[in-house]
Amino acid sequence: MNDLINLFDFEAAALALLPAGTRDYYRGGAADELTLRANRDAWDRWQIHYRVLRDVAERDLRTEVLGEQMDWPVLIAPTAYQAMANEAGECATARAAAAFGLPMVLSTLSNRPMEDVAAAATRGLWFQLYVYRDRGVTRELIGRAQAAGCRAIVLTVDAPVGGARERDVRNGFSYPKDLPMSNLTGAGAQFSNPDLGEGGFVGYLNRMFDPSLTLRDLEWIAAETPLPVFVKGVVRADDARVMARHGARGIVVSNHGGRQLDTAPATADVLESIVQAVGPQVPVLVDGGIRRGTDIVKALALGARAVLVGRPLIWGLTVGGEAGARRVLELLRHEFDIAMALSGCNRIGEVDRSLLARAGELPPARG
To answer: Is the pTM of this model over 0.90?
Structure first.
């Protein structure tokens, strides 16, 4: 793996190893994949107007989100079915995250049960929640997450129905029968290991997930657990503002990695407006297309408290298991440390909006 020197190298190496169906499931987006590409391109449109003569000999990258301490401002994004990349799956990812001082957000649809992943995630585990039509199943997932020591619930709200994932349709992709969704085994095979048949995963989503969610359901989930509830899948400032009034303790700006509504806005383009809408008491996180250390600096300058990174960990798992996932995080952390120093910042609190401007513009004056 020594010849892989950035996250794009890991992606190329992983794609060469994976079978077509799994490869396209992991990397694909919805329809024409415009949002998938826009997520990456939007970070590149921002320029960092770096400061000089700032004494950056010592740098402190630590941060916190609602009391959750992390050694640098990254969480591992929820990604389903990681055992297709490596048999250790989510447990390997959790160990890699812990080695770099990071929490992990575990998908409802993980192959390894949350209790096993929690044991591996010694720097903290959050649980990403899909709301099933069967509220008993949903309630059980919340209770198990709390009992397993998860520190937050990340409620995903941008999947009332499945997106048009054309790569999966062309490939006839279906999850392997020998890799059940282990968090759902207690609910029965129709939940944890269904015969997906025609329609694949999107068919499962449309049968199982509740498309009738409203703010009342957010209030119900917030009342169901003492854990803070983050709402993931938000791209509108007015939505974020209302959710904060109805029980959301935090917001995750996300378009599901471009896998749901194609032509949705890139997360980098809406992040700042959402931060301004909810105010400083509601932490805002962001995902989507983050592949460089400079992207993390840009996200912080736009007001995010931290970022989430998902697909690159899959590429690391594919190439080298836990060691590959560690190497992905090592490369990203190194890039972030360099970007902080070259931006003239020696701690997270020094990254602000005055660092950023679009091409041909000047950044705003520092407050």
So the answer is: yes
